[in-house]
Amino acid sequence: MTLLSLAEVSRSFGGVSAVSGLSFAVRPRQVVGLMGPNGAGKTTVINLVSGLLHPDSGAILLGGRPIGQAAPHEIAGFGLARTYQNVRLISGMTALEQVIAGSYLRRGSSLLASILHLPSARTAMRATREQALHLLERVGMADRGDVLAETLSYGEQRRIEIARALASRPALLLLDEPTAGMNAAESAEIGRLVHALRDDGLTVLMVEHNMKLVADFCEHVVVMNFGRKIAEGTAGTCIGDPAVQEAYFGKQRDAQRHRA
Ligand SMILES: Nc1ncnc2c1ncn2[C@@H]1O[C@H](COP(=O)(O)OP(=O)(O)OP(=O)(O)O)[C@@H](O)[C@H]1O
Ligand SMILES: [Mg+2]
Predict the structure, then answer these.
(1) What pTM does this model have?
(2) What is the pLDDT of residues 234-248, one digit of tens each?
(3) Close Cβ partners of 39 (under 8 Å, ≥ 6 residues apart)
(4) How far apart are CA 40 and CA 69, in angstroms?
């Protein structure tokens, strides 16, 4: 069974082929790692799956439904949530408010009721707040709910982003470099959180450079370079693959040779 599948997906920007003939599948309750050097096309894949971009060709299916031409809010409604490579929190809002805002991404229709202050809306708002508090606890930020987002540390902001994405109760969560800029201990925390979420039934597709994290927490790995898939399989197989080693370390080695 497959939750998400990409079949021969391509997307170019002018002359740059960002994603080229890419196919892979994500099964329910899997944690899949998407790797590749800078500019490989990873974020473009996340943007294609979440509807910010549409493929030039190929098919993307979520739960068997074609979503290649769907808008981001429609795809969110089908149970997908994401974070961004660069943190996108709203300044002036507390950590708790950010997470509450996330829960409205999927339930836009309840907005009118809340403006009219209907009793059902008050009950729903209380439940939403309870859920947000629970999610803050889940990402290890129970005591930071009242803090303005912009005053949180970078690692904390990334956690809030995950909590906000979870607030829409997705079936599939896309994380674009969730541990960027984090130290080893903070990164491992994110890995453990992802694993715990998986145990609760969530499916995760994460862009991740940290090979240890990928090896420890991803059941399946897809590696890209120049828009194409160059390896797929277990983390061990992919990391040991000569094409992957070359993609990650070849340029570095060439540069060292050049300097020597
Ligand atoms: N909106 C855009 N307009 C033009 N070119 C783009 C656009 N988005 C991505 N690209 C190009 O497509 C290629 C893939 O970019 P992408 O951001 O998907 O890579 P990435 O694997 O996420 O890289 P990184 O590890 O640096 O985040 C790059 O050459 C990039 O410059
Ligand atoms: Mg990227």
Answers:
(1) 0.91
(2) 999 999 999 999 998
(3) 226
(4) 23
